[in-house]
């Protein structure tokens, strides 16, 4: 069942991983941003329509202009599991390499920003092993 609502979560984007057909971006969300039940509902075996927003880097004291502009990236991501510690929830947003600008996604790695979740739903059913019809 699909749920449509905008949820803005502050996060730290962690490392980017790549595979043959997919790429993934880790995220850390402060526990104060959502409850454990909501994190479980949102990050375990879900498909998320998201907008990733990269925060601007802080200006140096003697800098008169921003060196880097903020970046936004829309995408369809799947999540499979939730990690948790005393301060953060963690998960990996996985996308098809052909459906997201991987070079742009790389710019989010090890930076801070926000995840805007516009829609969360069940992921598409996987084809059985050996089934080449999809």
In the CATH hierarchy, the architecture is: Beta Barrel
State the major sheet. Answer: 7 strands, antiparallel
The fraction of residues in strands falls at over 45%
Instruction: Look up the CATH topology.
Output: Elongation Factor Tu (Ef-tu), domain 3
Number of strands: 7
Order of helices and strands: EEHEEEEHE
Please identify the top-level CATH class.
Mainly Beta
Given as residue ranges, the uncertain stretches (5+ residues, pLDDT < 50) are: none
- Based on CA inertia axes, which overall geometry fits? globular
Query: Strand order of the main beta sheet, please?
Result: 4-3-7-1-2-6-5
Distance between the termini: 22 Å
Structural class: mainly beta
Describe this entry's structure for a reader:
- The chain is mainly beta and 134 residues long.
- It has a single domain, classed as Elongation Factor Tu (Ef-tu), domain 3, CATH 2.40.30.
- Helices cover 10% and strands 49% of the residues.
- The chain contains two helices and seven strands.
- A seven-stranded antiparallel β-sheet has the order 4-3-7-1-2-6-5.
- The chain is globular, with a radius of gyration of 16 Å.
- It starts with a strand and ends in a 13-residue tail after the last strand.
- The mean pLDDT is 85.
């Amino acid at each position: 069942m699909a749920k449509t609502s905008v949820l803005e979560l502050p996060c730290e984007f962690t490392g980017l991983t790549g595979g043959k057909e997919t790429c993934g971006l880790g995220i850390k969300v402060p526990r104060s941003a959502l409850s454990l039940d909501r994190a479980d509902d949102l990050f375990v075996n879900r498909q998320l329509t998201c907008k990733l927003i990269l925060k601007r880097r802080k200006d140096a004291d003697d800098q008169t202009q921003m060196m880097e502009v903020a970046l936004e990236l829309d995408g369809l991501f799947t999540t499979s599991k939730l990690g948790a510690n005393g301060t953060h929830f963690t998960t990996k947003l996985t996308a098809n390499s052909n459906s997201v600008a991987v070079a742009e996604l790389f710019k989010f790695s090890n930076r801070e920003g926000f995840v805007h979740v516009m829609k969360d739903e069940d992921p598409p059913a996987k084809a059985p092993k050996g089934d080449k019809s999809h």
